[in-house]
What we know:
Blueprint: H1 18-22, H2 44-58, E1 91-92, H3 95-100, H4 107-114, E2 124-126, H5 131-144, E3 146-151, E4 171-176, E5 183-187, E6 192-196, H6 201-208, E7 213-214, H7 227-233, E8 250-257, E9 260-263, H8 276-280, E10 289-296, E11 298-299, E12 303-311, H9 314-325, E13 333-337, H10 339-344, E14 353-361, H11 367-379, H12 396-399, H13 401-422, E15 425-431, H14 436-458, E16 462-471, E17 474-484, H15 490-507, H16 523-529, H17 532-545
The structure holds flavin-adenine dinucleotide.
Flavin-adenine dinucleotide binds at residues 35, 104-105, 149-157, 160-161, 177, 197, 219-221, 225-226, 228-230, 232-233, 235-236, 284-285, 289-290, 414, 515-517, 552, 555.
Amino acid sequence: MPRAAEGCFAGRNGQGLPAREAGQHVSQTRRFWGWGCEESAPGEEHQRAVAGLLAARFERQAPQLQTPPRISDIGMASPRIQAPPILREIFSSQPTDRAGHTYGKAFRDIVRGLRRDFSPAPDLVAFPRDEADIVAVLDWAGAGDVAIIPYGGGSSVCGGVEARLDGAYRAAVSLDLTKLDKVIEIDRRSRAARIQAGIFGPALETALRPAGLTLRHFPQSFEFSTLGGWIATRSGGHNATLYTHIDDFVEALRVVTPAGTLQTRRLPGSGAGPSPDRMFIGSEGTLGVITEAWMRLQDRPRFRASASIGFKDFARGAEAVRQIGQAGLYPSNLRLLDAGEAANSGVGDGRNALLLLAFESAHHELDAWMRAALECCRDNGGSIPDAAGRTKTDTSASRSGTAGAWREAFLRAPYLRDVIVAMGYISETFETAVTWDRFENFHAIILREVGDVLRRVCGTGSLTCRFTHVYPDGPAPYYTILAPSTPGSQLEQWSEIKAAAGEIIDRLGATITHHHAIGRDHRPWYDRQRPDLFARALSAAKGELDSRGILNPGVLIRARG
Length: 561
Ligand SMILES: Cc1cc2nc3c(=O)[nH]c(=O)nc-3n(C[C@H](O)[C@H](O)[C@H](O)COP(=O)(O)OP(=O)(O)OC[C@H]3O[C@@H](n4cnc5c(N)ncnc54)[C@H](O)[C@@H]3O)c2cc1C
């Protein structure tokens, strides 16, 4: 088993993951320009270590960290509108609120934040307390030509919450839903709960725990994203197989639209025509504001088994993953990391690919499932550690050893990304999905052509890959780019690389996103990916629900008919 490498980017600074589990971030200082809370950011020692690693890897001088902005550094235009008197108490024009709701958390957002550029700031931020407030805000906005941008945790990485309006509206209001943060009702017998959309991941799990239940949906952004955001973006959780996206957990929805409020029926399944839930799942705030959902839950897992398997090359690992994915075993984790990705996370030696394999269950021991999956690995040359994969009934199966080291690196990665960006590097990811019959060729072309672009644009750079999710008919590969930029050109260089990756994915017939949504940034390729007639049908639905086109203009579809 590869040992966790000391000095990997993830660091070993012992800061742990204090806020994630208990959701303490509510009492910490949320950053208005970057990921998470000030208190959990990497310390100076870790930053120096990262600077040293970057310098060594790319043979450059150790980079300097740009000073993060303070709110007093930021100049923003005055709001163009005032809150309606009757709703004044739910609106804010405070600079911290406006700056904190200007961007999501994409690479470009962090760069602009560090540059103190908050020019697209919303004029006002509204914090509705209940549905009545949302109805009132939508009525007011519709009458006054004000764009409304639903906002959950603001963790969008595709321009989904940014008021990029090109002067087409009188003003923009960010509609922050995080005051709608309750688990209202639990139906233990059906294993479902009625939950408000603005609840953050940790608070949601805390509320379900006493009933022995869990949503078991853990995107990497779990700590700082909301149920409504997950549903609106069709987010992907930590389950690598079977329950990959939030979609399957949605039992019923409640949505406020400018044309009225709708509630779908609670049903375990239905064949009654196209699903109204599915129309709003993935609608990214363009068709309505999701206020509540009945969500399908699971019993909390008690049995866990995990193993880390080394492969001499990624292709052999991919073949093992394909066989496991098609064997009906449904592991909770089936993440194949290429050698570079494993090394960056501190769980590999930089020479071998690594498969993180895990099963979880509330009901049964997992040894038989693990044995069958390890057999697929053995058949493909995987090196299997002694005593791999025995069922455990405590959390040590996922929180210790290689699996634990990976988990910690994974959760700290967003903080680290901000540090790397502040050092003038390009740190970007893109993710997709493609059927197995095309994967090998697809992957080779991505590595070659995106690699060429990196060398041309930045002179050097690394491109690594892991599978985040695996389906019987294909994997969801997730690529990570790390490259030095030329001072002053960080955004332009990123833009060129991002566009090139989008073009290649589109040309090869894969999806422009597997779980990062469309927003404003993926529109050019999404517009090509979806059938034209579907686009027209979606626009017609938008016209019916939001005839004045005030909801999140520019996302998914053309703003006004
Ligand atoms: C470090 C990092 C890691 C990430 N990891 C993952 C991951 O593992 N899996 C994954 O799927 N994504 C991931 N993302 C992307 C992002 O977290 C998801 O898209 C998430 O679902 C967004 O939730 P949010 O509450 O932050 O929504 P926001 O960013 O606030 O909004 C996202 C979109 O949904 C709309 N919206 C939000 N709430 C509502 C609502 N109640 N009603 C209607 N529309 C609404 C917004 O208008 C916007 O278009 C990651 C992002 C970051 C920065």
